[in-house]
Amino acid sequence: MGKLPLDINIQEPRWDQSTFLGRAQHFFTVTDPRNLLLSGAQLEASRNIVQNYRAGVVTPGLTEDQLWRAKYVYDSAFHPDTGEKVVLIGRMSAQVPMNMTITGCMLTFYRQVFLPLCCCVLKTPTVVFWQWVNQSFNAVVNYSNRSGDAPISTRQLGTAYVSATTGAVATALGLKSLTKHLPSLVGRFVPFAAVAAANCINIPLMRQRELQVGIPVTDEVGQRLGPSVTAAQQGIFQVVISRIGMAIPAMAIPPVIMDTLEKKDFLKRRPWLGAPLQVGLVGFCLVFATPLCCALFPQRSSIHVSRLEPELRAQIHEQNPSIEVVYYNKGL
User: Fold this and answer.
1) Which residues contact 234 (CB under 8 A, 6 or more apart)?
2) CB neighbours of 222 closer than 8 A, spacing ≥ 6?
3) Domain boundaries in the chain?
4) What's the pTM value of the predicted model, to 2 decimals?
């Protein structure tokens, strides 16, 4: 068996990113929860394989499949722009286990809002707690999967976190107060409405640095051309749509199923099964919804030069008048 050639393009995903199917295959690999079980040594070994190959050094005995496996392990744990190792719960491979737990608990405890008045004292604290947990997790994910490598100070990060979580929790409480007299089935959908609205607040606030200074745009071969706020706006909008899409199956399907099951004798005799069953249903939905909604838009998105800021547009035309489309990492 010969030495592995150096012409394999591991700068790009293995599958065609111009098609939804190709992007779905890519994100099913990136969001695989089993990546969380890899040790630090395995992550470092994968990083060394990838970085050595990009530098023209092939690890002895390396096969193409092993190279691609190393690339996806590397991509699952390291930020594409900064190269920093992403905190464990901020990785996309943590989306399914973390969200199934948080979303399952949100759906379960939101149900208490519509139970008899003896539970009323639990209502607001319970909603606040789970929304705070959810939005804190989202803040970590949004920061960890931001676009670009512009530095952000601890103060800026703290301000973004406080504003994002406060705004999101306030939105959730506002929606809860509007549904006090609605049927219990309708009440089960309050968490989805709250999460959807909160995503519109949390993501832009946690990535506000990008909206202030822009994100790097490149030509087709990856050469940086300058920062663009317009590209940042487009990328963040796409991420918001994807995140809301992820929440739809997990927060819309289990409530309908649980509302039906809770009327059956089986669950009436075993009420303790309600919470784990709901968490399991949410997890099943997220296994498919997470990669499929990540695949709605390419990770390496594009924007026409004519839509960029005048200064950047002029700079690009001066450097290379033939460039009509530029590219950027939209984040996740």
Assistant:
1) 301, 303, 330
2) 11, 327
3) 1-85, 91-329
4) 0.76
